[in-house]
Structure to design on (494 residues):
């Protein structure tokens, strides 16, 4: 064998072996990171993880390794937290230390570290504080947020009436209604359901949802640099990101021309005023790029999550008509037919409130949560988690804790009712996550879920197109989120 060939063979054998040894020592030899399956060089645990149903596989791993364990997405170290105690200790007890945003390569490329969701440090703190202030229940401009939701429910009810009792897929109906609420907050007005730009935006949101569920997108999590150069469905996410950016940039230009600094009408107006106030601060986080990214994030998040949860809620009620009937009875008793539901009704409607909570618990939109990162070296239990480590807090492990929710695999509004039928709060209810990075739109989503669901059931009885016992309520699982299977229903005026 020639010397050059011998050297090549030596390198081929030794380098992977060295990488493997380093990975193995990092996982188990140091005793500092939590235990976990042995990771291979470069690919980490890619071949060992069930990417079609990662939340289920995480449950299996926790049974073997305990409530805190380590896995590798390619070369990226990920620490998983499983169970109420460890999730609470980290996200709430060590809130500052677990307030970073974890590694999400595909979104990092899109956001470039800007915006509310994917930024870190001082930028994240300032943008989040600003967004929370402008999404509070006091509203913005002339209308409160509750009034904006009530206005949209009237359009939705009219649209549902026009189905004339015929079967239809509720996806677009719910998506348009929920999206128009966030549009009225960030853009200042709702869109007509047939508006071409609005239709295009919604189609992009739905396309993104499908693309994010693609195995190609999951591969991007493991091998981002490699996947950047590979054609495939995941590339559509970057193309769509540019479409969203162009639309929002156009809206920003229009807002600049009509801006009244004394009377902001929406989120964009408020952000532009903040930019003007800080224009002399060269380190200000309030600039056009942050405005565009924050607006896109609010639009996409404010459109998808709540509408998908509502869609699942209707499917649940089709499956269990006896639950729907109890909600009808409570609506008739508290609200009647002469006025629209309002948030003040919720305290008088414990069963309906429990149903809304149980829909969110049972569905668990984001079973593993949105990844966090530790902002400094952190001691958790007997382990040391290095600064920057990505954290997956398993929200499903909390929402399905059988100590708090007996028989968690069964849909039961009684999980949120006490022995007297009064609504019962639970510290285990974390569909929006917990701690410093809890969903910025939590308050808005809670209002939408209650008002939209009660308004639909105030006006209609849901009718399945198949026997309820044949309705499949098992969610479609992907790497990051759940979704209900496609279905049709009929709505009959009450």
């Amino acid at each position: 064998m020639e010397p050059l060939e011998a050297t090549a063979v030596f390198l081929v054998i030794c380098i992977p072996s060295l990488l493997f040894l380093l990975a193995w020592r990092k996982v188990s030899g140091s005793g500092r990171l939590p235990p976990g399956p042995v990771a291979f060089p470069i690919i980490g645990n890619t071949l060992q993880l069930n990417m079609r149903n990662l939340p289920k596989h995480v449950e299996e791993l926790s049974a073997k390794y305990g409530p805190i364990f380590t896995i590798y997405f390619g070369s990226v170290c990920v620490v998983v937290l499983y169970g109420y105690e460890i999730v609470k200790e980290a996200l709430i007890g060590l809130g500052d230390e677990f307030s970073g945003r974890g590694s999400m390569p595909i979104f990092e490329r899109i956001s470039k570290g800007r915006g509310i969701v994917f930024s870190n440090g001082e930028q994240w703190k300032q943008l989040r504080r600003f967004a929370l202030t402008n999404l509070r229940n006091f509203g913005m401009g002339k209308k409160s947020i509750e009034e904006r939701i009530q206005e949209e429910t009237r359009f939705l009810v009219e649209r549902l009436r026009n189905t004339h009792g015929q079967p239809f897929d509720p996806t677009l109906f719910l998506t348009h209604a929920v999206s128009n609420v966030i549009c009225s907050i960030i853009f200042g007005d709702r869109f007509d359901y047939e508006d071409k730009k609005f239709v295009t935006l919604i189609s992009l949101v739905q396309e993104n949802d499908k693309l994010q569920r693609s195995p190609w997108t999951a591969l991007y999590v493991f091998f981002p640099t490699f996947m950047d150069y590979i054609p495939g469905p995941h590339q559509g996410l970057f193309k769509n990101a540019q479409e969203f950016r162009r639309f929002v940039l156009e809206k920003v230009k229009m807002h600049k021309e009509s801006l009244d600094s004394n009377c902001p009408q929406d989120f964009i107006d408020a952000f532009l005023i903040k930019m003007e106030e800080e224009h002399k601060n060269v380190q200000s986080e309030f600039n056009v790029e942050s405005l565009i990214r924050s607006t896109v994030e609010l639009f996409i998040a404010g459109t998808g999550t709540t509408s998908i949860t509502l869609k699942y809620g209707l499917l649940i009620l089709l499956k269990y008509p006896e639950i729907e009937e109890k909600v009808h009875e409570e609506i008739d008793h508290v609200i009647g037919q002469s006025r629209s539901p309002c948030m003040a009704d919720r305290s008088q409607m414990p069963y309906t409130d429990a149903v809304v909570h149980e829909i969110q618990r049972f569905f668990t939109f984001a079973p593993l949560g949105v990844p966090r990162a530790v902002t400094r070296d952190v001691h958790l239990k007997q382990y040391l988690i290095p600064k920057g480590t990505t954290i997956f807090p398993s929200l499903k492990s909390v929402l399905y804790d059988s100590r708090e929710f007996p028989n968690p695999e069964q849909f039961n509004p009684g999980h949120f009712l006490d022995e007297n039928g009064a609504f019962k709060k639970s510290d285990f209810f974390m569909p929006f996550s917990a701690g410093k990075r809890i969903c910025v739109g939590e308050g808005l989503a809670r209002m939408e879920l209650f008002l939209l669901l009660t308004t639909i059931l105030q006006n209609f009885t849901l009718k399945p197109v198949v026997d309820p016992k044949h309705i499949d309520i098992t969610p479609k699982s992907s790497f990051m989120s759940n979704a209900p299977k496609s279905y049709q229903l009929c709505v009959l005026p009450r």
